[in-house]
TrEMBL record:
Species, as recorded: Variovorax paradoxus
Protein name: L-aspartate dehydrogenase
Annotated function: Specifically catalyzes the NAD or NADP-dependent dehydrogenation of L-aspartate to iminoaspartate.
Domain Aspartate dehydrogenase: 165-252
Residues that coordinate or bind NAD(+): A121, N187
Catalytic activity: L-aspartate + NAD(+) + H2O = oxaloacetate + NH4(+) + NADH + H(+); L-aspartate + NADP(+) + H2O = oxaloacetate + NH4(+) + NADPH + H(+)
EC number: 1.4.1.21
Length: 264
């Protein structure tokens, strides 16, 4: 059996869980882990079997998976694509930056390869992207998380998240603006918009809600296909309350599909 040699970019809440799930995988081997320079020694201790570096190795890698954050796309994904290595991306919100989607496409074309944006913490991306072909009239996305998941974000400006007693809308606007302002919380807004009506026409509401324990994502879409409303109640990862566990499974699914003879 051919074993796909994987480089994992980012070894935080998602990355460590991906590593754990792939430990006993016979078709995929994480041979390299890419973290910021100052984290190399710590990551090497956590994953003694892999090469840990601050750059994706230029050879010996069949597949790259990004679970690091928006900055990692310019820094690591673009050069890997240009070298011809296919890349799987979790930080989809990075594509809200002007010109980045075009740069990714150009790099993939130059490397004769492909960049795959995973669905991550949201579902029905297949249905939405298919519905777009018939024509969409409206797409709305609502992201609702416990107050602590909004710590360290602009949601803290002018409010004490710990003191919230009722649901509070912290953002209302376009998916482009949401993804830019909340790079660790609104990747899903970007994914829904890229599959559907685009970054500027997708209406986004972000809510801090002390009554929920999960990350609750709702998508409502209408168009020539009909309509759907989807609500996901995702359990957050213990290591990062901003991030849903489903994101890990989505990344692992994408990786396993690359190695599988039959993909679903
Ligand atoms: N599509 C989706 O549904 C979702 C996407 N995401 C995306 O995934 C990202 C990671 O999430 P999560 O694992 O929870 O976050 P964590 O903060 O737990 O982990 C991020 C990891 O990436 C490393 N890192 C940061 N910047 C870089 C870089 N430029 N190059 C290499 N490594 C880097 C960090 O290192 P250090 O700690 O040393 O900084 C850390 O190890 C989020 O920032 C978000 O963009 C998250 C949730 C859902
Ligand atoms: O993991 C989640 O629930 C969603 C998330 O953080 C994001 O969209 O960036």
């Amino acid at each position: 059996m051919t074993v796909l040699r994987v480089a994992l970019i980012g070894c935080g809440a998602i990355g460590t869980s991906v590593l754990e799930l792939l430990k006993s995988d016979t078709a995929l081997a994480v041979v390299a882990i890419v973290v910021p320079e100052e984290g190399v020694a710590a990551a090497q201790k956590a994953a003694p079997g892999a090469q840990v570096a601050s750059r994706v190795p230029a050879s010996g890698i069949d597949l790259v998976v990004e679970t690091a954050g928006h900055a990692a796309i310019e820094e690591h994904v673009l050069p890997a694509l240009a070298r011809g290595t296919p890349c799987i991306v979790a930080s989809v919100g990075a594509l809200s930056a002007a010109g980045l989607a075009e740069k990714l496409e150009a790099a993939a074309v130059a490397g004769r390869t492909q960049v795959q944006l995973i669905a991550g913490a949201i579902g029905a991306i297949d249905a939405l992207a298919a519905a777009r072909i018939g024509g969409l009239d409206s797409v709305r996305y609502t992201g609702r998380k416990p107050p602590q998941a909004w710590k360290g974000t602009p949601a803290e400006q002018g409010r004490d998240l710990d003191a919230l007693t009722q649901e509070t809308v912290i953002f209302e606007g376009s998916a482009r603006e949401a993804a830019k302002l909340y790079p660790k919380n609104a990747n899903v807004a970007a994914t829904v918009s890229l599959a559907g009506l685009g970054l500027d026409k997708t209406l986004v509401r972000l809510i801090a809600d002390p009554a929920v324990a999960e990350n609750v994502h709702t998508v409502e879409a209408e168009g020539a296909f009909g309509s759907f409303a989807l609500t996901m109640r995702n359990k957050p990862l213990a290591a990062n309350p901003k991030t849903s566990a489903l994101t890990v499974y989505s990344a692992v699914r994408a990786l396993r599909n690359r190695a599988a003879a039959l993909a679903i």
